[in-house]
Design goal:
By secondary structure, the protein is an alpha/beta fold. The protein has 2 domains: 2-90 and 165-198, Nucleotidyltransferase, domain 5 (2-Layer Sandwich), CATH 3.30.420; 98-161, Nucleotidyltransferase, domain 5 (2-Layer Sandwich). It is built from 7 helices and 10 strands. It has helices at residues 34-44, 64-81, 90-95, 139-143, 145-150, 167-173, 192-198; strands spanning 2-7, 13-19, 22-29, 54-58, 85-88, 102-103, 105-106, 112-116, 119-123, 136-137. The chain has a 5-stranded mixed beta sheet with strand order 3-2-1-4-5, sandwiched between helices. A 3-stranded antiparallel beta sheet has the order 7-8-9. Strand 1 (2-7) and strand 2 form a beta hairpin. It is elongated. The protein starts with a strand and ends with a helix.
């Protein structure tokens, strides 16, 4: 089955074209170029959008704007080509880079997104559950390198690909496919605009 997967939840947006588990093409760019990236992947993989059988999109947590861009793109493509969609947590995909590592995504506001008992959560970086010698990966681990290292965590070099939520992992983790409108973003926090409106 030919799958197009992408994740725009972090500054490192990724996309991949995967056929029966084999990566045909992969890109790393920015959320604003996701449609251009998808087109380039199809050309690079020698495929056409009519060959696609499903889409997989990263549902976060991550940037509110990035998540909306990814989900809007998935919904538009799914509608145009009548494709089923599956959503995959960006944290779970990131964790596949280095089994046993702690995925840490920068949540801004002096917080990070991570997995707590296998479930996505938002915590202060100093509250991360880290055992001595634990490896932390992701843009949050890079940002809070000094703090996490002081707590005994090991952080790969900033340019290590383990810090990137590669879309090939989203394709591998995809479970049930269904209508695009059923795939919801995983925000974990109330958007700033909503907080302002409540005041």
């Amino acid at each position: 089955m030919l799958i197009l997967a992408f994740d725009t939840a972090t500054n490192d947006a990724t996309s991949a074209l995967v056929l029966d588990g084999e990566v045909l093409a992969e890109r790393r760019s920015r959320a604003v170029t996701v449609l251009e990236d998808c087109d380039a992947l199809l050309r690079q993989g020698g495929a056409h959008d009519r060959d696609l059988r499903a889409l997989v999109v990263g549902v976060g947590p991550g940037s509110f704007t990035g998540l909306r861009m990814g989900l809007a793109t998935a919904r538009a493509l799914a509608f145009a080509r009548d494709l089923p969609v599956a959503g995959v947590s960006t944290l779970h995909a990131l964790a596949r880079n280095l089994p046993g590592a702690v995925p840490v995504i920068d949540a801004r506001r002096k917080e990070v997104f991570t997995l707590v008992d296998g479930e996505p959560a938002v915590v202060a970086p100093e509250e991360l559950a880290l055992e001595a010698g634990a490896i932390a990966i992701g843009d949050g681990a890079r940002r809070y390198r000094e703090l996490l290292s002081a707590r005994g965590a090991e952080i790969p070099p900033d340019d290590d690909p383990a810090h990137i939520p590669w879309a090939r992992h989203h394709a591998a983790l995809a479970g049930d496919f269904g209508p695009a409108e059923a795939v919801e973003p995983l925000y974990l926090r109330v958007p700033d605009a909503e907080k302002t409106a409540r005041r």
